[in-house]
TrEMBL record, chains A, B, C, D:
Its EC number is 4.3.2.2. Keywords: Lyase, Purine biosynthesis. GO terms for molecular function: lyase activity. This is Adenylosuccinate lyase. The gene is purB. The keyword Nucleotide-binding does not apply. Residues 352-432 form the Adenylosuccinate lyase C-terminal domain. It comes from the Bacteria.
Length: 434, 434, 434, 434
């Protein structure tokens, strides 16, 4: 992933340094377990830990060996033997490369999930703060982009909170799924290595043993992980799209924070563009794009083929780095969002009261007018308002058929905003549990 | 979905009859709840139940009304009023169309999930039966399509079992997520309807209330559902691909059941093609193809737009019907799979013992030969075998450097298959819990 | 595809009737070619044409046979022999089922492309008509959803025209690619059939011979076809999205035609929702969703496997039927689109002249003010306007630094709309060639 | 894209150095055109060329400015003015950032296409060479992974040649589509810049003017480009999959070249795995994964939003770099592929002549036996062979019903391989034109 969309903590999970350090820990723990089983000398296991723990792995040297032997794990083990000495021959006993590679990938994905979960916590906190701030800020609810009925800006944000809270739960499930350890040998039969080694390494590295692996950890786990990231990215897009809409010139109910020195356009200095949320829309497309390759990775041939590897070398870092960046960016956008309640009110008033038509309709039916008649009464007064030929409240009061069913006070009561907000507490309690 | 890939139970979930019956139940339960709240007369609610329960909804009549009013829920309500009489005006009070549509979709998706879960149970049972049947049937494990080390056909199937068991858990989670009820009005504020109605209907219909809806149930739930189906389909593809490989002419370790009257090809009567599993591969592509549209459905505009609807009208039925068909077909394939242990043994012997090279390598290192030297010793005896110039066991015994480290008996011990199967019980216990 | 999104002409291309008729024609032409080569009797070929041409194929009978023999082409040939009599044994000589199936699919896809090309012609005509109608209707151009500079509604439509004209050219190329004929036998070697038969049938059916087939026509051709449909669908989504934006309550520069009897919402009778273009957005997602399965179909195993078949049975009809429907619907939307030039003017004036800031900037630099200074001058007068604290023209005239560079007349000239429209003719000439 | 899958020429197209050089050329050509129009002084335009041509753009300095102004084109122009001096104020007159950015992207994509076309030429040459080498090398053709009829390895490769030749034509079309130039101002009206500037720059940079742009070049062009790459990647996967199959232990008709020093596995030294073609399978998934984001980029809002940008920053380089690498790798694999004709013959003989059953069937029908009877005769002799209970030729000769129709010589003639290869020349002539 390009630096523009990368943050250091997530990048470091995918660095060669981290990878080789995890490889070392897996190999060293396995050697310890083998020593406990009496398969290798305890002193050798200790030597591996002693030398390896203080060593800095020389990535260029490993690369150099790999160019020769064309095999990354052999290259690493060769380098490890340069560090540890002859005791290194007890390392990797009965193991296969994938035992190291796949368990390492599990650890990297689990750590990436941890960062993303932290990101989600930050985002949830920001949304919650702004939701309470605007719990009763009236704004128009829109279906089909058309004014519907009043809601509050806080409810909009409560919806986003509930959605990202679900995302968090999904990611927790996906993290749990991916955090497995496989040290089971060339085809997963433990022919040359006792299952106790896998159990030991799993425990030490915070993983659960893969019940049955086949040289590799089955890729349905990874597919589920990336699919979950794709769903989260889509939720990012949803909130980003909402903000882009709110910042439209004609709407202008909210704006991304615009720093003093920032230039919106080389040509139009007055422009304040929702470039962050537009960017998030694009990033969501990227993360979604990684889902299908991950799904296609599931059907490996027989016990394994290596077609998944190139895909994961790319989408492992790319999907998690982009999503980490996107969640952090969205958090910042929400945190600093400029909200304009006065413009929300202005837009609420735009339709001359038409947004209250549903209430009038209901009031009429409650007075015994049939649904069809009520509908027609409301519609015939709404249409002139729509054409700019009058005010809905006035027209309704002047309509003799409406007046037959409703008094002027009853009609006016239909135009009271508070009516719409009486269940805001209920919704907030459901969402925030408080 | 075309009849060729459809089974009646799943199809019926998506029929107009089922849909209108669910609509009726939602509306009628809501009317009962409104009556309990004193908003509408109890007698009216009773009348709705009485008349509606015994009525058969006339789909052609509803279609006819819809062609006129261009609105499906209004068309249904109009028809309902034809059935119930004037009391029907109390139905749908304070509700919006999506309250009915979205809650109905939740119910249909939950019922579809129930069928798929039942399918998975059937598939798991079939896999388990065959896994135990072939628990110790030796077969070659293959990585990269190349012989690796021995495994058993039962372990192959145990892997499939574990994978589909995970699929089941994922689907249970997705089912739980999708089974929500929204009766919250035009923008989700409960302005015109008490939240108690939603709670009542949810309970009656076996759903949980949607914490915060916005006319619609948020589409991240549906996205997660379809993404989960995409993962399951990919697992179907994996097992199907395995069987296709096993049925290849040169491999022929297993075959799809071939009925007496079946013709494999109009031109080549001897051919027995794995057409069912090839078909499953294609069906998996279809189900995967529905994931991205579902993800794109998440970012609706503001409180809702209706772009998701056409997508769901198609992929709701298509994804669940195809996957139901695929799971049933796969179950049948597994159930009736012709397994040829003798061919498995023949293939195991194909490489003249080369598949035991890893064991020889390990035996050498355990005798103190360095990893690098062991590797070279094994490789120089393996390559002639590969070229068809000898038998691995014989060559090893004749190699003086090998003989320095290993006795003839020790070399022969490396060629014993049982060595590979000593942990089959462990694996089966992990997977099947018994 | 469900009837809701289907039109009869496209549906009929994919009907069993059409399919069997095409099968018959392929078989009958091939028999004629075989007769010309002296392989089968001329009278037999004539009998096949005579009986088959006047026959109505009994689809239920063919289905019945297929249930027995489990092979569709054999079922058809058996039925054909029931119609033609013993001479039918000369039909299909040396051919393989795929010769018929794949060539038939080519014909169906080519015919589907012809309908879609006709759809595009209709859409282009509608766009062109409306583009000329609104060639000089001023409207604000928006980047990032923010007002940028004036343009005309005609230019917007000219862009759409150019885009769909490109789509047409792409589809013509895809149609040409897909229109091939393969009659080459079980693995494409023409072992049992002379290449002259393929050439003859190709010519009769309006196809070109597939240079090298392998029982099947290579699926990269089909992939390119569906990928092209995916691009066209995305262009449909673009224009649909534009209209959805224009119909937003706050913008309201255009609206989908709203028939008298139509109800927008059961709850809010004043609402006129852009449901057709929202629907088109969803349909675009569907068509895009078919691209990846088509791409996954390319890598068939060896000479062929049949995994592509189930995919094509679905996406062949679905993609073409949905896109046909979508293009027709979009044509109708464009054709009847309600355009509100007065609202366009109102929105143009919304920012108090800020949209002319780029021109002022340019005027300043042309008078020798540095780009940086010009930018600052424009920005310091623009920001108060943005905050609703004044009118841009007035503020600029009152700014002493601006006045140093520009006279009042020169400033006013920057606010003249015609300035922006001087190249409309150029653009129209480029797009429409006239 | 990570270095592992990158080649320097393609990487350099996407480097900041190349980008800024192209930006400079666009700006400088535009300034020349403006000077020709008399809008800016000719000396200024000359000064821009003189200073800019010899300058090395300081990427760190540009980045530093961008961090301050948060706008990449302004940062570049500021740096350019540091190089050129005060005359730099005449640069970018009437232009908008996207004029530079989008035209630059067109140039980069066109250059990337040129490299990919060169790659395809290399691949086609390698395939052609091997195709002629194995024009008449007999091998079994397989449908459904099951032996069908004989073909030649040259015909297999001819198919691949024809497929990649189509890919080349598609890429040429996509390259032509993408190579457009837009210098049309903030919303594409040429309000502040004469269309002659666009025409001039287009000509100088080898592009065609975009007929109607809207600040940006319409993204359907880019979508078509990436969709085309997705199709090519799928064809890469097809040939890679073929080779993976051929290298399977049981098949072993071909192998990827295996260098002396290469280790196939840390555990199984005899293994020679098709890791290059497995890798290509994964890379194909990656390139396919970029198609949908590109399709989603088409529907920008109004005249433009910037959501496409982050997507293109990633997939522009990633898709072209990966595909360049994949095509080069595939070329090398084909070029050095180890082909084993003797194993092909061994596999051909595997079924005891069953692959000739279609010919026997045909011979029977040509002697007047009905299709159904012929089928039954062939099938009853084929089934014992399939079960390993005899040799097809012998059984046929011993079958009295067969003998009634065919002499021993006629039966034997059905087993002659040359029969299948009589049209190899025809196929080669069609594919290679010679």
């Amino acid at each position: 992933m390009i630096p523009r969309y990368s943050r250091p903590d997530m990048v470091s999970i995918w660095s060669p340094e981290t990878k080789f350090r995890i490889w070392f820990e897996i190999e060293a723990h396995a050697t310890t377990a083998l020593a406990d089983l009496g398969v290798v000398p305890k002193e050798a296991a200790q030597k591996v830990w002693d030398e390896g723990s203080k060593a800095v792995f020389d990535i260029e040297r490993i690369d150099e060996i790999e160019r020769e032997v064309k095999h990354d794990v052999i290259a690493f083990l060769t380098h490890l033997s340069e560090i540890v000495g002859p005791e290194a021959r007890f390392v990797h006993q009965g193991m296969t490369s994938s035992d190291v590679l796949d368990t390492c990938l599990s650890i990297q994905m689990a750590r990436a999930a941890d960062l993303l979960l932290k990101d989600l916590d930050g985002l949830l906190a920001a949304i919650k703060r702004r939701a309470y701030e605007h719990k009763t800020t009236p704004t128009i609810g829109r279906s089909h982009g058309i004014h519907a009925e009043p809601t509050t800006f806080g409810i909009k944000l409560a919806q986003a909170y509930a959605e990202f809270d679900r995302c968090k739960q999904r990611l927790e499930a996906a993290r749990k799924e991916i955090a497995t350890c496989a040290i089971s040998g060339a085809v997963g039969t433990f022919a040359n290595i006792d299952p106790a080694v896998e159990e030991y390494v799993a425990k030490q590295m915070g993983l659960t043993p893969e019940p049955v692996s086949t040289q590799v950890i089955p890729r349905d786990r990874h597919a589920m992980f990336f699919a979950t990231l794709g769903v989260i990215a889509s939720s990012v897009e949803r909130l980003a799209t909402e903000i882009r809409h709110l910042q439209r010139t004609e709407v202008l109910e909210a704006e991304e924070y615009f720093s003093a020195g920032q230039k919106g356009s080389s040509a139009m200095p007055h422009k304040r563009n929702p470039v962050l949320t537009e960017n998030l829309t694009g990033l969501a497309r990227l993360v979604r794009g990684y889902v299908t390759p991950a799904l296609e990775n599931v059907a490996l041939w027989h016990e394994r083929d290596i077609s998944h590897s190139s895909v994961e070398r790319m989408i492992g870092p790319d999907a998690t780095i982009v999503l980490d960046f996107a969640l952090a960016r969205l958090t910042s956008v929400v945190d600093k969002l400029l909200v304009y309640p006065e413009n929300m009110q202005k837009n609420l008033d735009l339709l001359g009261g038409l947004v209250h038509s549903q209430r009038v309709l209901l009031a009429l039916t409650q007075k015994g007018v049939s649904r069809e008649d009520s509908y027609r009464l409301v519609q015939r007064n709404a249409m002139p308002v729509w054409r700019g030929e009058g005010d809905f409240l006035t027209l309704l009061k002047e309509d003799p058929d409406v007046s037959k069913a409703l008094t002027a006070e009853e009609i006016e009561a239909c135009f009271n905003l508070d009516y719409h907000f009486k269940h805001v507490d209920t919704i907030f309690k459901r969402v925030f549990g408080e």
